[in-house]
Amino acid sequence: MTVYFIGAGPGAADLITVRGARTLAAAPVCLYAGSLVPRELLDECPEGTRLVDTSRLNLDEIIAECVRAHEAGLDVARLHSGDPSIFSAVAEQMRRLDAHGIPYEVVPGVPAFAAAAASLKRELTVPTVGQTVILTRIAQQATPMPPGEDLATLGRSGALLVLHLATRYVDRVVDELLPHYGAECPVAVVAMASRPDELILRGTLADIAGQVKEAGLVRTAVIVVGRTLGAEQFRDSHLYSPERDRHVC
């Protein structure tokens, strides 16, 4: 028996990986985040699969479901939105499964920031403009940020920032980043990336807060801040340069 943590992708049901879909199609138990995972994905489950919506379950209750399946010798598909490697609360589940001696594997998925970049039709790393992407969030009452990971500190790098779970606090985002990026720095907000109700806002640090409030965005969105969003005049990469010696390994 194995628990499979599966990245369900950013929202569009067809953005799950082939491996993820195959694993889901063979699992007799499926635990899924009902508030985020598209219901169409559950159609991949075999007939008779035990479906458990974890959106209203606490950690103890989720692990209890895994223990029950383990005792019955049944594989579990644990569907998470996006990719399990970031902001997924998978680490605490793995720790509990380790304590119970329950084996697990991870099937990666398409993360929200990648879907947002695709919707924006932008490469987030552009030669000579920006080669670093920081994935982060901001401190909230329930979960504080570790020391040194506040926006004011991260902003000093000038790197492209992708902020998850931050649209509710867009004024704070703007206030903390303005001194480092400037009012004219390009910003984009992508809500419900890859879904039929996707919404894209484009602007600068000077006007993005007003756009977010007017659109009423409070969740399920990423904020992207950085110069590469507006890069047009930049040097071609060395990768495909005609000057590159392709006979050298």
Please tell me about this protein's structure.
By secondary structure, the protein is of the alpha/beta class. 27% of the residues lie in helices and 19% in strands. It is built from 7 helices and 10 strands. The chain has helices at 18-26, 59-72, 90-100, 112-120, 151-155, 170-181, 208-215; strands at residues 3-7, 29-32, 50-53, 76-80, 104-107, 133-136, 160-164, 186-191, 199-204, 221-225. Strands 3-2-4-1-5 form a 5-stranded parallel beta sheet, with helices on both faces. Strands 6-7-10-8-9 form a 5-stranded mixed beta sheet, sandwiched between helices. A hairpin with a 7-residue loop joins strand 8 (186-191) and strand 9 (199-204). The longest helix is centred in the first third of the chain and has 14 residues, at 59-72. It is globular and about 60 Å long. The relative contact order is 0.15. This is Precorrin-4 C(11)-methyltransferase. Residues 2-208 form the Tetrapyrrole methylase domain. Pathway: Cofactor biosynthesis; adenosylcobalamin biosynthesis. Belongs to the precorrin methyltransferase family. InterPro entries: 4pyrrol_Mease (IPR000878), 4pyrrol_Methylase_sf (IPR035996), 4pyrrole_Mease_sub1 (IPR014777), 4pyrrole_Mease_sub2 (IPR014776), Cbl_synth_CobM/CibF (IPR006362), Siro_Cobalamin_biosynth (IPR050161), Uropor_MeTrfase_CS (IPR003043).
